[in-house]
Structures are given as C-alpha cells and as structure tokens.
Known about the structure:
Blueprint: H1 11-21, H2 27-49, E1 61-66, E2 71-76, H3 83-90, H4 97-104, E3 130-138, E4 145-150, E5 156-161, E6 167-174, H5 189-199, E7 207-216, E8 224-232, H6 249-260, E9 268-274, E10 280-286, E11 303-307, E12 310-316, E13 328-332, H7 349-372, H8 374-397, H9 400-403, E14 409-411, E15 417-418, H10 420-425, E16 433-438, H11 442-446, H12 449-456, E17 461-464, H13 469-476, E18 478-479, E19 482-486, H14 497-509, H15 511-520, E20 527-530, E21 539-544, H16 549-556, E22 567-572, H17 577-588, H18 590-607, H19 615-626
Parallel strand pairs: 1-7, 11-13, 16-17, 16-19, 20-22
Antiparallel strand pairs: 1-2, 2-6, 3-4, 3-6, 4-5, 7-8, 9-10, 10-13, 11-12, 14-15, 14-17, 18-19, 21-22
Amino acid sequence: MAKKAFKAESKRLLDMMINSIYTHKEIFLRELISNASDAIDKLYFKSLTENIGLTRSDFEIDLVIDKENRILTITDNGIGMTKDELENNLGVIAQSGSFKFKNENEDASKDDISVIGQFGVGFYSAFMVASEVTVDSKAYGGEQAYKWYSQGADGYTVTECDKQNYGTVITLKIKPNTEEEEYDDFLEEYKIRGIVKKYSDYIRYPIKMEVTHSHLKEGSENEYETHTAVETLNSMVPIWNKSKSELKDEDYNQFYKEKFFDYDDPIAHIHTKAEGTATYNALMFIPSKAPFDYYSKDYEKGLQLYSNGVLIMDKCGDLLPDYFSFVKGLADSADLSLNISREMLQHDRQLKIMAKSLERSIKNELVKMLRNDREKYEKFWKAFGLQIKFGVYNGFGAAKEQLKDLLLFYSSGEKKLVTLEEYVSRMKEGQKYIYYASGETVDKIDKLPQTELVKDRGYEILYLVDGVDEFALQMMVDYDEKQFKSVSAGDLELESPEEKEEIKAKAEESKDMFGFMKEALGGKVKDVRLSKILKSHAVCLTSDGIFSIEMEKVLSQMPTEHNAKAEKVLEINPDHQIYNTLKTLYDTDKDKLKAYTELLYNQALLIEGMAIEDPVDFSNKICSLMTI
C-alpha cells in the first residue's frame, strides 16, 4: 500500500510535537501506557453494558524488551482499532479517539471507568525515542487486523496483517545512542520499571513484564545464576482512592516513607476527598522535620499531581501557598484542564478551587493538632514555625487572618510556648496591649532592662527570638482588637497619675542637661530622655516610630544593603544613682559628662546586642574612670 501523508499540515508540526511539547523523553512510555489503559477502559465499559463475558481480571498491559534487536513492545487486550480508526486516530494529529468516546458515552466517566487521553498527540511521543513505530491492531468483534507503520513525519502506511486476538501491539524500534542521549536506557529493565513506577503506578490494570533476577548458585559462594519471571510492575490501586476505614496509621506512614524517601514517620497525614465544583482525592503529609534545603532557594514546593492515577506533574507549586510549602503529598483529579502534552496545567478555575480547598484542609489539621495534641504541634512548630511567621509577614499580611491562630511565642509568665488566644485570655483587667520583647534568645530577652518593670507590674511578655517575628506582629497590627506593643517602645502607659506628674517634673528639670547629652552623641540618637520603663537599671535604648532597634539588627545582617535605621532614644533611669551623678557633672564638669554620656550610650548598645563603633575608645574611657 502506498505511503500516506499525515493529514495535519506538515513535517514541521510533527517535529514540534516530538521535540518541543514534551519535557522528558521518558514521557513516551507514560503516554503509550495511558493509551493502552484507555483502550481497555473502552472494552471494559462495553462489558458492563453488554453481556460479552469479560471481567476486569481479563485485562492487562504487557511490556517486552528485545535488547538485541532494539525493540520495545507495548501490548494491550483492549478494544482495538479498525482500519478507519487507525486512519483517523493515528493519521490525523490531535485527533483523539478517547476524547470522542468520552463525549459519546456519558456513563464512561462513572464508576471505575476513566478515559485518560484527551488530545490524541500522546502517541506521537513515541517518535522521541523510536526511529520506527508499528501498530498492529484488531478491533473487538472484527475479523481483520491492520498494521499502521511510520518512520516519522514523512507519512505512514496501513496494511492488513495477521493478528489472532483483539487489542493492540505497539512496536518501537529504539534509536541508536547519540552524544546527547543514551537511548539504550529505554531497553534496560531497571529503566522501564522505574518509568512505570514513576508515572503509571496507579493505572488500574496490571502492567506486566518479564523481569530478570540473579542469586547465588546453590552450593557456591561467588557464582551467580539468573532466572526470569513475569511480574506486575504497578500497584494499580492508589492508597488515596481507598476508604479511610480500610487504612491504618501504619499504612499511611509506610506509603509516605516509600513515596517521599523519608526515614521518619510524618507528624500527621491528611486524607481528603472533594466532590462538586472541583472533584479530587488528596493525600498530604506534614513531615516531622524540615529537609536540609528547606530554607534555601533550592527547595521546590508542590504536590504531585495525578489525573486518573497518571502522574502529570511531580511538583505542582500552585496547589500550595508558600506558608504551607512544607507539606508533601499528592492530589488526583479527573477534572483538570491540561495542555496538549498533559505535562502542564492550564491555570483554570478548577485548579484554584482545589488549591483553596487543600489549604483549608491543611489549616484545619494544624488547628486540630494544636488543640488536641499540643506536644505534637510544638514539634511541628519547631520544624516549620518560622515558615508560618514568614507567611504572616509576606504579601503585606494578606494571610494574617488565616495564620494568626497557628502562631506560638514563648511567654515570660508561662515559661513555655503560648498562642495569642491564650495570651489574650489571661490579660489583666484594663490591659490595653499585648506586650512583646525581641532578642537573640529567651535568656537574653529575659535580662533586658526594658522587661523588668513590665514583669514587675504582673504583665505577661511574649519573647520574640526569630528575625521575622517583629515584622510579622507589626504586619498584624493587633489580635482580637488588642494592639501589639514592644517593651522597648519607650511609653508603655504603665504609670499612675502621680508617677506621671513626678516624671514630667524631673524631665522639665533635666531638659537642658539632656539636650547637652544629645548633642554630645553627635546625631547617634534622636533624643535623650527620662525613662518611664526602667526600674533598677541605669540606662537603655528605646526607639520612636514603628521601626525598632531589633528590626534594624535583622536588616543589617541581610546580604543586600539597607539604609533603614531605628530612631534610637537613650533613656536614663531617674531613680538610679547615675541620674544624680549626671546632674552634678552638668553643673561642674561638662567634659566628663560628655565622656559619661558616650559610655552610657555604648553600654546601652551592648545591652541590645549591638556592636559599638569604637571599642578602643570605649575601653580607654573605662580605664580612665578606673584610675581616678
């Protein structure tokens, strides 16, 4: 029979499909197995609607490797194709028999019938690895079998052939190796088994292949013998399609460790099913610890995405918000709008609905864990709490309402991690603010001069030890209508009316002295003032405005340059002996007062964990005082 040209326009179109549409050459096997599964689905559907004497156990897909002749065959005992169907399905690029079948048979998407192919281009991925493709097919109930043969874009032939049984055999003549590609890999058992496991493990029919095993020869210590056996390569039934009542925690944990290569059990699993606007099954896991690269730019978030049990995308980042990027798992849906190669998603409404629903499921699981298993939640928080706090800060606080009840901070009163809800529930009558203090560690924060008065008055303080903490709280502004206030803010509004009057009088009395001290520091501080927050300590630094000293420290450690500076205020305790010494020096020795001012400023910097500008000068001034 004469060779026919493809009905699609030209060689250029087929070349584009083979060389551009698909990202990885190994995809060809996924596509051909999916087509075989479609063909079986059609015949299985026929067996459900007509009494033809076939059951599910009668169907299978067989793979055969012939390394010597560089042949790989994929055989199915599905519905097969007539001559016209071979012409129409394989002779017209982007013509899908599966798509047509699905449209003509509404019930085909019900029960356990699911037609994978939609676009009719998957078959042509075979030409990525094969120089020749032969399709022998006999339609169920037909008398004559036909052979479709092509070497690529030049065209194809369709001829009669001898084939006794219905179904389809696809024979690929694998290309020779090139400098760029090892085509020999597609003739190796381990490679074919790996591809099936990766992409087609949950095809609902057994995928069988003869597998070679080697073992020590009986009675020998170093001589091996081999034997072959036909094995089923795929597991067929996805765990996420099973009922929760069928599964135990051990089943979920084992699946997680095998699927995601973790040695430890996950902290929790989330098995969910949705029907309606977006229909899908999902199985997600919260790991017990962060991967080594989790907080690096190399980490790639995302869930594995399946369509009817066939892996479409290994990391679908669109299904997870950044603040839940630690979640591992998968989602399987038959309703996805895929592009022509089935490797990429069209960003449509179903995908967005799925992502929103999965986000709710993760949030609900974390809230449940927080309420019912605090120890487990704190383990989670140790691993991934930083990411939740970044989530509050990112996007100008867009997710703060979603995440605020998941936050934990160390409490000065409880001496443990607490939620914001727990803090607010214990607030003293008339307490206006949620007080917090920032620093490197809990111990260092606990010794800050600014915390002493707040604790003495019986108020609880949240200790913020991560760089993002204060940024996150400022983005939140308040919680349950209670504003956040740093103990280093300068005015904590803790004084009685009498104390306010006393401080006001002393401040007025010291106004000129503080003006001199401010000038002595040469612009290093915005102001020098009498402190309302110090109790026993002589001096501290506070800041005016929303940008704190701790925030300045965090930004100064960033690799990029930042000009943002806190508006520092040097505060002097009016009840400390140093205050009277300063007053005396202002009247008797302004040079020494200037030296004292610089010493107090440097002391305050050290208390805050900041570097002093001239440590040598600081040391010399201390020594000069010690020798008086």
